[in-house]
Every structure is written in C-alpha cells, then in structure tokens.
Amino acid sequence: MIRKVAPVIAVLAILAGWQAYTAISGIDSWLLPSPTDVLAAAADQRDSLITHTLATTKLTLLGFTAGVVIGLLVAVVLHLVPLLRAALYPLLVTSQNIPTIAIAPLLVVWLGFGLAPKIVVIVLVCFFPVAVATLDGLGRSDALIADYLLMSGANRRQLFTKLQWPAALPAMFSGLKIAATYSVFGAIISEWLGSDVGIGRYMIIQKSAFRADRMFVAIAIVVLLALAVFGLVLLVEKLTVKGRRSRG
Amino acid sequence: MADTALDITGLSHSYGDLHVLEDISLRVGKGEFVSIVGPSGSGKSTLFHLIGGLLTPATGTIGIDGAHANGRRGLIGYMPQAPALLPWRTIEDNVVLAREIGGAPKRGTRPQARDWLAKVGLDGFARSYPHELSGGMQQRVAFLRALLAGRDLICLDEPFSALDAMLRAEMHRWLLDIWEQDRRSILFVTHNIEEALLLSDTVYVFTRRPATVLERVEVPFERPRRAEVVDDPTFVRLRRRLTDLLTASPR
C-alpha cells in the first residue's frame, strides 16, 4: 500500500516545492509560472486544448497502430527467413542512429503536409522497439519443448503458433511499452513540422508568444497522453498473457 | 510383425567425427516395458532423437509398429527429461497438446484429459497453470501428455532423474499402476540400475560412447510388481551384475 502511494506523495511534494519557490523568490511568472498559474492557464484554454489534444491522440493512435503492425511483420518475417535476418538486422540497428528530427523535414518534402509524413515519423520511432523485442522473444523459446513438439509430429507452422509466438509475447509487450511512450513523442515532433492542429502545433504557437504557463500545460498533456497509451498496452498484456513465463 | 512395437536394427550415428551410437539393435514387444541403462553421455538422448525422427540415422533401420520409421516424426508418445509443459496453457490443455498436433480439436479431447487427471489424483488442477504444480505433479502431467498422444509406443527420457529418492519411489509406484491398467509399449532410458530392474521386463545395458549394446537382461519378476521385490535375492544378484557390467565397461 505504502509503495503504491509513494510516487503520488513524491509528485505532490515536488509541486508544493515548486509553488513555494515561485512565491518566495518572486520570479516573474512568464519565466517560471507556478503550478497554480499553469492550472489557471489550462482552465482558461480549455476549449482549444480539447481540440488540440483530440487531434494529437488520434494521430498517436494511428501512428502507434501502424508502427506496431509493421514492427510485428518485420519481426515475424525476419524470424522465419534467417538469411533475411542476417542481412537486415545490422541495417535495422544502424538505422536507429539517424535522428528522427533530421529526416522528418525530408519526409515533408517527399510526402507533403498531410497525414502521411506524420504517420511515417511515428512508425519510424515505434516499429524498432517492437520489432527487436519480438524478434528476440521469438528466438528464445525453450529448446526442450521445441524438441518435444517436433517429435510429437509438429510442423513448422504448429511450432510457431503453439510455441514460438506465445513464448514471444512477454518480450513483445516490453517492446510495445517502449513504443507506446515513443509514439506520443513522435506525434509531437511530426506536428512541429507543419500542422494546423495538435498539441505540438500548440506548443510552437505558445513558445513564440512566450507563454510559459501554456507550454507547461502542453507538457502535462503530453505526459498524460503517454501514460494513457502505456496503460492501454498494460491492460492488453494483462488480458492476453497467461501463466508464468520461465523467461523473457 | 504385429507383436513388435519398436524394432531397431544395426543403428549407428555420429556427429561429424564423434561416434555416438555403434550398431545398436533392440526390440520392444507390444505391451513390453523395456529399459536402457548406460553411463551418462552414452548417446541415449541421441537414440531418442533418432526414434522420434528429429535425426535421420546414417546406417540402420528403425521400425515402429512394423513400418519403416527412419526420420519420421509423430509416431511416438514422448516424455522428455524435464516436464517441458507450455507455461501459458492450463494443465488440461497441456495434456491434450500431442493430440492437438495430430489434428484433434481441444474440445474433443479435453474430457478424456480430465478423466485421466482425475484417475491420477490431479482433478483439482485441470484449470491450473504449470507453475502452480510441484515438480512431481508436473512430471505426472508430462507422462499423461505422452500417454494421451494416442501412440502405442511411449519413450521416456530419464523422466525421474531430477526427483529426490522419496518422490522417485512414489513415481515408480504411480507409473507401474497406470501402466498395468493401460499396457503400452514403453522404452525407458535411465542411468539408475535399480529403477530399470524394478520397472522393466527387459533391460539393455549400453557402453560408454560410442554406445553399443553390452548385454540384454530379462527381468524375471511377476506382474503386478511389488515394491519389496528390491529385497529379493535374485533382484540383488541382478543389480550386482549390472553394476559390475557398467563399471567394468571398457573406456
């Protein structure tokens, strides 16, 4: 019980310290607004924030879904074709060293200002953790159980569906959890590139207006959104992963 | 050859330069309980991989139920060294696994699985997951899974080697009880001489690698076998002889 409330207490303590500091130091609120200033800004901007948040949520979920589907496809194909895995795996890892921020403007040049380049940015940040974690999980199933299944007459498809895939689920969900938080971050970056709506867009506008209070509101929304997507993955994991796993 | 469950003739196998099995011939009759004892690393697991079709023998033939079975899979019920249950499946769904691979839908085979679980005193665990069971219970489930594979020949690879002496004795009793009710043809691998003599009709003694058949011993005690048979003078003499054979085995 005490473990569960501990993080809540920590957050409250930080907020209280922040509030006290702004009050005592008398720092200008455009430089560092107090938590109550931020709350006031959120209430004030309610209607516009709802529109922006909905747009970002939609973009995040679309991009996350596309990224997960592509990540899983890549993992399964590379697992089933070892030669392809040997050829492409190093490339896959290397590709992650390219900063998203650097290729994002190129995507706009290629794909325009519509939904497409934004989805691609999210897919680029999401598919990698899913693909690598799942691929790892698929390769780690118990060799003794595999021998048992083969001797009992299992074909390659049965070996995959009855052993390798279910055995990979815990690893896959680790990848999904990382991708969940990345997806919100990807959505914000893609909105910075050029968008007329979304929390990323809202941040750009408020930054130019030196509205630190509204920037903090936007940051809080991004954090809450990431937690929500993470929670969603956690829920699906609870519903699908049964029994205790020896590894993975 | 309808009275022969497994017929192995002139079987040899090597991994590269490493000769593992050398001219092995052995036979398991229908309803017969046959054991192989040999020192560790005498290629017993390789033999099972050959019988199970995971490997194809370089020379020699394997016949299962009178049919040529070199490199053919899915013809035996198999119980590996560790229970090897699928951790995300309930006990009853683990028991039906081999049948499911053969194409039988779970729904049809679950009642039979539950009947057997009840017979062996695991009826309360049909819906449990493997990690909720003790090691001995998991071994029983693994044996039922092999039994319900629906094959006449069941191969057991040192199934009790990880259990303590008390539990092992209990498992012997349990296995014999089931086997005496439902007489299958069994090939049992162990490095425990007493276990082999207690359970089997016939014991093959293997040498160290490359393994050859050193001796074939028929065990003369009646069925159902009593636990006290281990104190019988004939039993003691046989145990002495097999121990000598194994320790004196060349190399």
From TrEMBL, chain A:
The chain crosses the membrane at residues 59-81, 88-113, 119-138, 216-236. InterPro entries: MetI-like, MetI-like_sf. Its main location: membrane. Keywords: Cell membrane, Membrane, Transmembrane, Transmembrane helix, Transport. It is found in: Cell membrane. The keyword Signal does not apply. It is a multi-pass membrane protein. The keyword Electron transport does not apply. Residues 53-236 form the ABC transmembrane type-1 domain. It holds the Pfam family BPD_transp_1. Belongs to the binding-protein-dependent transport system permease family. This is Nitrate ABC transporter permease. It comes from Winogradskya humida.
TrEMBL record, chain B:
The keyword ATP-binding applies. One of its GO terms (molecular function) is ATP binding. This is ABC transporter ATP-binding protein. Transmembrane segments: none annotated. The keyword Chloroplast does not apply. InterPro entries: AAA+_ATPase, ABC_transporter-like_ATP-bd, ABC_transporter-like_CS, ABC_transporter_ATP-bind, P-loop_NTPase. It holds the Pfam family ABC_tran. Residues 6-233 form the ABC transporter domain. It comes from Winogradskya humida. Keywords: ATP-binding, Nucleotide-binding, Transport.
